[in-house]
Amino acid sequence: MRIKITVIAFLFISSYCFPQHFLEEQYQYAKGLYHTENYFDAVTEGKRLLFADTVGSYSYPGNMLIAFSYKGGGRFEDALAYFNLARKYSSGNRDSYIARLEAVKCLIILRSPSALTLLRGLEKDHLSEYDQYGTPAYWRGWYWLFRGEPGFAHEDFAKTSVGKYLSEFCDSINNEKYSVNFGRSISYLVPGSGLLYSGEYYGAFMSLLWNALGIWLTADALNSGRTLDGVLLANFVWFRFYFGGINNAQKEITNKNSELINTAIQYLETNYKGLKP
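Request: output the structure for the sequence above.
Response:
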């Protein structure tokens, strides 16, 4: 009888402990792949971990590991999905907060307005002990920078205790930005001036030249009594280059601002040592 009880106890302990030991080894193996930047191998092993984990003891860390691995591999939408999944398995407020914050970082990189919605939720749940992960205002500053609004980013970074450098950096970027409204407005007054403002000198010269030609041809036709020709020339020559120049100015200014923002983000990614998305 004693032997039977011993055998049953041994089988019970083995069935419980050995799988747990295997799961921990599998988890550490997947983590090792992640830390050596073998991100997609880490994803595969992380999914294998979740498949073997029938009791769900690794549901939160496993999904977080897969999410971080996808993020490291540049697949931010997949990472976002797994951060949201990890949140469902969080065992406490801190775990839930971290999962949501990591989801926000992915949304920031994706330039999604949904980041602001999640940040409003984080503001309600933020505690001072979470400051080590960055405050909601800090991450909202990053959101505005990625969205091409360094002026708003400057204001939000200025609200944080660690954002002085980023606030000043964004303010300087904002001062370098071209004004789309200004460029469009002066293009209405003087054809080609918006392109000149954006630094497209050749385009500005050609826009002014074609507009001058269109005006001359239209005026010549009207003065000669060829009203129909004048109307056609105005619509298909002059107005085409007039409004085309305005749209081109807006497009060039937008492109220049995008280049400026992307260069700024790349600089911070390489040189800034603080928390980044």
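The radius of gyration is 30 Å.
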